[in-house]
Write a structure and sequence with these properties.
Radius of gyration: 22 Å
Shape: globular
Order of helices and strands: EHHHHHHHHHHHEHHHHHHHH
Largest sheet: 2 strands, parallel
Distance between the termini: 34 Å
Strand order of the largest sheet: 1-2
Mean pLDDT: 81
Oligomer: single chain
Low-confidence stretches: 440-446
Length: 446
């Protein structure tokens, strides 16, 4: 008796996504929306939270750093587990923990308690996000992966917008605790959908067990007309890469691009994360704007965050993704340095807020899309986790550095200038990555 064989590439590589994949794509966008909401909410409400907990505003730098520590540890550990046990279960578990810890944020009444709970919030979120990105990338056709993964970060901008507009409104009308409850409740409501409809990656399953019935169910969800016989064996063009995923990031000619990806993430995330949590306060203190106006100006970055992935997509169709990101990172450095003159022309705060979202967050979003399509299935979660983990390590340092500079009364030119330098470094490393990727693609994959 001949065993039936089906190539999963024949189904997954179809450029028309269909209802099932579009639904999963939107669901993944919800995760990014909640990340943007939570990250920008605590930044926009930092003065209010500090007052409510009874701590000075500069002490919030320790809270921001604790969040980055949680992210970094999660990115370095959980994705490696996922490459062995699968993406789906980890996404579900860490998402529930994220919602629970977000709610617990509202129950703390001390600096130490706030530091501890925000560490746990971002540890859970850091466990979910790289696996969400790995899972959705493995369900998308390769010709559309770059643009679709980059455009997915529009949801991050929407979350940031909700934090700046609705979150601050809710906090003013009720309390800052209610603003956090909103994000937690939305995710908990969505969890039954994720549990019922989120599949395991077919590519991951083929590597583990080519006759797993779940593969056929997912392929039929993508293509309802597909008929699958009992005992079907599934195949794909991508070969398995045996060995430890972390070590494999440096094998087969991948070492240069791995190191450049790590450095790019480290540099851009240093500035992006620091500005995300401190920009309202920097506008307030260095730009001599009242706190409400400063928060509203920075909230415009949410619109920029929505437009940023669209700009990346437009550019990548003309110059390729790496060069597009290098250009945006360089422009972001110039824009952030120009913020040092805000006190001379306060109205420019609206433009600078938009530029931060468009260029800095836009470049960071594109970098996430780039790393997701760089590595094969067997090491994709690990590749995403360790690259973004490097960014989270520098994100630990950045907020505390900014808080220390503010406490030491550094000038606006010095603070903004220091935050612009890593963006320039990121632009250079991404440009170098372009040439190393071209050389690697020209070789056979191993």
């Amino acid at each position: 008796m001949t065993t039936a064989r089906i190539s999963i590439d024949d189904v997954i590589e179809r450029t028309e996504l269909g209802r099932f994949r579009w639904g999963l794509y939107i669901a993944c966008g919800v995760f990014l929306m909640l990340e943007g909401y939570d990250s920008f909410l605590i930044a926009n409400l930092a003065p209010t939270i500090a007052k409510g907990v009874g701590i000075p505003i500069p002490a919030m730098g320790r809270v921001f750093s604790a969040q980055a520590v949680g992210f970094a540890i999660a990115y370095y550990t959980i994705p490696m587990v996922a490459d062995y046990v699968g993406r789906r279960g980890i996404v579900l578990a860490t998402s529930v923990l994220f919602a629970v810890f977000t709610w617990l944020t509202t129950q703390v009444h001390s600096l130490d308690g706030l530091i501890a709970i925000r560490f746990l919030v971002f540890f859970a979120l850091g466990g979910a996000l790289p696996n969400v990105m790995a899972l959705i990338s493995e369900l998308l056709p390769k010709p559309r992966q770059g643009s679709l993964l980059t455009s997915l970060y529009i949801a991050y901008g929407i979350g940031a917008a909700l934090a700046g507009w609705i979150g601050t409104f809710v906090a003013t009308l009720f309390s800052w605790q209610v603003a956090f409850w909103t994000g937690a409740i939305v995710l908990l409501i969505a969890m039954p959908f994720f549990y019922l409809y989120l599949p395991e990656s077919p590519r991951y399953l083929v590597l583990k067990n080519a006759r797993d019935r779940r593969i056929g169910k997912t392929l039929q969800a993508i293509d309802p007309a597909l008929r699958v016989a009992e005992g079907t064996e599934y195949t794909m063009a991508e070969r398995d890469v045996p060995g430890i995923p972390l070590i494999n990031l440096f094998r087969g000619g991948r070492a240069p691009q791995t190191l450049l990806l790590w450095l790019s993430f480290a540099a851009i995330s240093f500035s992006a994360t620091t500005l995300a949590v401190w920009l309202p306060s920097l506008f307030h203190i260095l730009g001599r704007l009242d706190a409400t106006t400063a928060a509203r100006m920075v909230s415009v970055s949410a619109i920029g965050s929505i437009c940023g992935p669209l700009l990346v997509t437009w550019l990548l169709n003309r110059v390729g993704l790496p060069i597009a990101l290098a250009l945006m990172a360089a422009a972001a450095a110039v824009a952030m340095w120009a913020c040092s003159f805000l006190a001379l022309a306060p109205a420019l705060g609206w433009l600078f807020g938009f530029a931060f979202g468009l260029l800095t967050i836009g470049a960071q979003a594109g970098l996430n899309g780039l790393v997701a399509i760089t590595y094969p299935t067997a090491m994709r979660s690990t590749g995403i986790g360790w690259a973004t983990g490097c960014g989270r390590v520098t994100a630990i340092i950045g907020p505390s550095v900014a808080g220390a500079m503010l406490a030491a009364h550094w000038s606006a030119q010095s603070i903004y200038g220091l935050l612009a330098v890593p963006l320039l470094i990121g632009a250079v490393t991404i440009a170098l990555l372009h040439w190393t990727r071209a050389e690697h693609v020209a070789r056979p994959a191993t």
